[in-house]
């Protein structure tokens, strides 16, 4: 038990350190000044302003890391990140209050043992270094007393958590029932009726049929929420023709890329070394008489193919073995030949011809690269002046008249991914822009700059029939085909109910044996196996597919297989249920502790933290 508590405690230590490091990444030690010091009082425990600030900061940084975009405090509030951070801290404080009332503590000696074993606090000799200890805590804005107090609390929480969750087991009858449900098997026969097998093919829709289908299914042809945007953009490609590149610069870049433009003849080679030439000769003899292949020789040396693969090599790389290797054919094994590690066999897997690109051939590529780089730098230099024009009240249209930017318009939706909407930066700006926002310069991934303006927001609305006619006709055809397939499949179903002979249907069919609920069958709908498990033995059903109708008969119900894999899965299910039950009991305990602690929030302090962003 003590060992378990010790391991859990170490885990909490690293979680604590990780959260602190992440939350304060790039910020150093952060604290808020003022007379207000706590945001909540939870029983005898309090949640400090700095704790709340760090926790909220950590939540925001986590979302930013996922999205790749900076987040404003208003956005964090809309997502509920501030409430999430606060609720987590209150729960911890409630548990600390509970621990304090129970009188649980790990003691000074155990606390010291925990601290000296943390690698971040150890010096080059692997022992505890007090200077390293102080330095690490300074980086996260904590004093040693604050950290030790937090660590003491974390360890005490771990003891309580272990006591509440330890030994909890879900009733065996439930885990067995769930395992039988998940691992049960079915054998069945399934025939496929495709549109090509319809007795009466579906005709092309008439105008009246298209209009009627459109009127009855307007929701299928609704345009998404659309932002009509005007934007001005300046990209490096727009400036390429105006940038002159002198030949000296091109020559210098060409010389710097010598390895790229001058590549000697190469071979793709594997090298298998031996301790002596006699051993290598004996191995080659095994190859020649068919007693082993090259892969077997590699395994005999306790190696993998990746261990002997040299990749593509030149004559210079091979030294004295070069002539023999380069004279061999693809798939030949030659040797014994000298290598830096002793006698070796070489297998030749491929040949790469000499590749020399002249300056004249490389010049267009080099010119585009240098011109693009200079264009990006020119654009970057203009960005501030263009932003100043916008700040001074210039419209995008006036901006285009006074600069090299070009004007464009787009009806943007969250599904837009063509043209300028293919850039992540533009999509993020289009998503964030609101009515009344002033345009400002932003950068795209390729070095372009742009500014945009929201003209109008169009809420979801029906797409005009004249624009959607082709898709309406296609949807009508699919719907009518599905009806025809269902009707013909029902006729086949009636025949099978009489004679049970799938061969007599003339349809392609297959028999599947002992499949579980999680089995995947190609060309079937996602709920196919779910519907199969709803059938009784001998029962028939038509299951609509993608452009097909599947006629299924359940042949046999089978219990879970008695295999090691199935038993391991049953054990895994039991462990998962036990863990879930233990976690739920602990959550209930924490909520109860929180209720009894009667948390009191300080809204003024909470507002102060949010305004600090």
UniProtKB/TrEMBL annotation:
GO cellular component: plasma membrane
Keyword Cytoplasm in record: no
Molecular function, one GO term: peptidyl-prolyl cis-trans isomerase activity
Keyword Transferase attributed: no
Predominant subcellular localization, coarse grouping: membrane
Membrane topology: Single-pass type II membrane protein
Transmembrane portions of the chain: 12-32
Boundaries of every PpiC domain copy: 245-364
PANTHER family in the record: PEPTIDYL-PROLYL CIS-TRANS ISOMERASE D, PERIPLASMIC CHAPERONE PPID
Stated family: Belongs to the PpiD chaperone family.
The name this protein goes by in its record: Parvulin-like PPIase
Organism: Ruegeria conchae
């Amino acid at each position: 038990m003590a060992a378990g508590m010790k391991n859990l405690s170490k885990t909490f230590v690293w979680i604590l350190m990780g959260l602190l490091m992440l939350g304060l990444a790039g910020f150093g030690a952060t604290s808020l000044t003022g007379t207000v010091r706590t945001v909540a009082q939870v029983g005898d425990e309090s949640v400090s302003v700095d704790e709340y600030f760090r926790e909220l900061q950590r939540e925001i940084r986590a979302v930013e890391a996922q999205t790749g975009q900076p987040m404003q405090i208003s956005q964090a509030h809309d997502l509920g990140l501030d409430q999430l951070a606060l609720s987590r801290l209150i729960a911890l404080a409630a548990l600390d209050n509970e621990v304090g009332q129970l009188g649980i503590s790990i003691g000074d000696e155990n606390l010291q043992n925990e601290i000296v074993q943390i690698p971040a606090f150890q010096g080059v000799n692997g022992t505890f270094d007090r200077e390293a200890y102080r330095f690490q805590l300074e980086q996260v804005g904590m004093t040693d007393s604050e950290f030790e107090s937090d660590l003491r609390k974390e360890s005490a929480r771990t003891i309580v958590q272990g006591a509440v969750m330890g030994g909890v087991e879900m009733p065996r009858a439930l885990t067995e029932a769930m395992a039988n449900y998940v691992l049960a098997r079915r054998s069945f026969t399934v025939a496929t009726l495709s549109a090509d097998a319809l007795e009466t093919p579906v005709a092309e829709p008439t105008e009246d049929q298209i209009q009627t289908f459109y009127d009855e299914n307007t929701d299928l042809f609704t345009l998404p929420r659309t932002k009509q945007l005007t934007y001005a953009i300046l990209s490096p490609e727009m400036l390429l023709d105006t940038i002159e590149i002198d030949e000296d610069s091109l020559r210098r870049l060409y010389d710097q890329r010598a390895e790229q433009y001058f590549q000697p003849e190469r071979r793709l080679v594997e090298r298998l070394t031996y301790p002596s030439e006699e051993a290598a000769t004996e191995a080659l003899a095994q190859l020649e008489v068919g007693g082993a292949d090259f892969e077997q020789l590699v395994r005999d040396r306790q190696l993998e193919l990746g261990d002997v693969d040299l990749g593509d090599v030149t004559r210079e790389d091979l030294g004295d073995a070069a002539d023999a290797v380069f004279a061999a054919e693809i798939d030949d094994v030659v040797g014994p030949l000298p290598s830096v590690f002793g006698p070796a066999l070489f297998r030749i897997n491929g040949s790469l011809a000499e590749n020399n690109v002249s300056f004249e051939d490389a010049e267009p590529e080099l010119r585009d690269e240098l011109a693009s780089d200079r264009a990006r730098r020119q654009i970057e230099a203009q960005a501030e002046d263009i932003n100043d024009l916008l700040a001074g009240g210039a419209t995008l249209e006036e901006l285009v008249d006074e600069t090299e930017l070009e004007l464009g318009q787009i009806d943007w939706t969250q599904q837009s991914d063509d043209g300028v909407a293919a850039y992540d930066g533009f999509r993020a700006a289009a998503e964030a822009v609101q009515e009344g926002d002033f345009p400002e310069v932003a950068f795209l991934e390729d070095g372009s700059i742009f500014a945009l303006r929201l003209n109008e927001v169009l809420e979801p609305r029906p797409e005009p029939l004249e624009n959607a006619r082709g898709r309406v006709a296609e949807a009508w055809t699919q719907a009518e085909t599905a009806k025809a397939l269902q009707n013909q499949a029902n006729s086949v179903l009636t025949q099978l109910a009489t004679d049970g002979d799938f061969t007599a249907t003339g349809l392609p069919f297959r028999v599947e044996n002992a499949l579980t609920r999680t089995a995947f069958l190609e060309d079937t709908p996602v709920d196919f196996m779910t519907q199969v498990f709803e059938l009784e033995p001998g029962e028939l059903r038509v299951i609509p597919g993608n452009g097909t109708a599947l006629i299924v008969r359940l042949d046999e119900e089978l219990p879970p297989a008695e295999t090691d894999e199935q038993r391991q899965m049953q054990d895994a299910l039991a462990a998962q249920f036990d863990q879930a039950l233990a976690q739920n009991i602990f959550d209930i305990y924490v909520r109860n502790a929180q209720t009894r602690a009667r948390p009191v929030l300080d809204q003024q302090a909470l507002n102060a933290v949010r305004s600090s962003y």
